[in-house]
Prior knowledge:
Layout: H1 4-16, E1 23-27, H2 35-50, E2 56-60, E3 62-63, H3 73-81, E4 86-94, H4 98-113, E5 118-123
Parallel strand pairs: 1-2, 2-4, 3-4, 4-5
Amino acid sequence: TGNDWIEAAFRAARAADPNAKLCYNDYNTDDWTHAKTQAVYRMVQDFKQRGVPIDCVGLQSHFNSQSPVPGNYQTTLSSFAALGVDVQITELDIEGSGSAQVSNYERVVKACLAVTRCTGITVWGIRDTDSWRASGTPLLFDGSGNKKAA
């Protein structure tokens, strides 16, 4: 039905709890140049212009060698923030190991810190072996529960 069901859900949620923080949360919205990212941006822009209640946008950021941290990641965060919503990285995991993984986690964290309205980064507080992406060792704790360099 298009965006009308999303709008209806946000309006109903605000009516049910005027103090709840209402966030649109999605995956594959990390790269500013991608069509899906642009579509979500236009939806949020439209909602803000028409007074549809929306407080933040969440990015589920799952990175690997086939889908690396985009060079324009901070642009994505700052562009959504410029619409008057907070941005949050709601599912951060980065496949890899060693210095490459450290560097990529660092890039994401620095991008968030550079955007005033980036209000949170959520990582999985579990071991790599407990991840749905275990083979890529994407988390901050190894299979024994030890913290990794990232």
